[in-house]
Amino acid sequence: MARSIKKGPYVDEKLLKKIKEMSKGKKKKVIRTWARNSLITPEFVGHTLAVHNGNRFIPIFISENMVGHRLGEFAPTRLFRVHSGDRKK
Question: Does domain 13-76 have CATH number 3.30.860.10?
């Protein structure tokens, strides 16, 4: 379900603050976050974020193609292992 246009896109305020501070400085480091539902904005491009998938943090380098998507889309929470019937062959 989409967010109302009146409210605008949801971006975690603490995460956006960290990105802006890092953009001002020269050092780039990995930012750890639990905000999987946060929208990727153009300010995020070029930074590396470690998104929590429920078990561990998955490092993600943000590119221009990712703008408009959610952070959680790039850190899968479930690991698929093969079906048991396929291993018998």
Answer: yes
Domain residue spans of the chain: 13-76
Number of H helices, E strands in the chain: 1, 3
Rounded CA separation 44/61 (Å): 9
pLDDT tens readout for residues 26-82:
888 999 999 999 999 999 999 999 999 999 999 999 999 999 999 999 999 998 888
Is the whole-model pTM more than 0.85? no
Q: What is the Cα–Cα distance from 29 to 18, expressed in whole angstroms?
A: 11
**How many angstroms separate the CA atoms of 43 and 54, rounded?**
25
Residue with tokens 């989409």: 2
- Return the beta strands (E) in the chain as ranges: 31-33, 48-52, 57-61
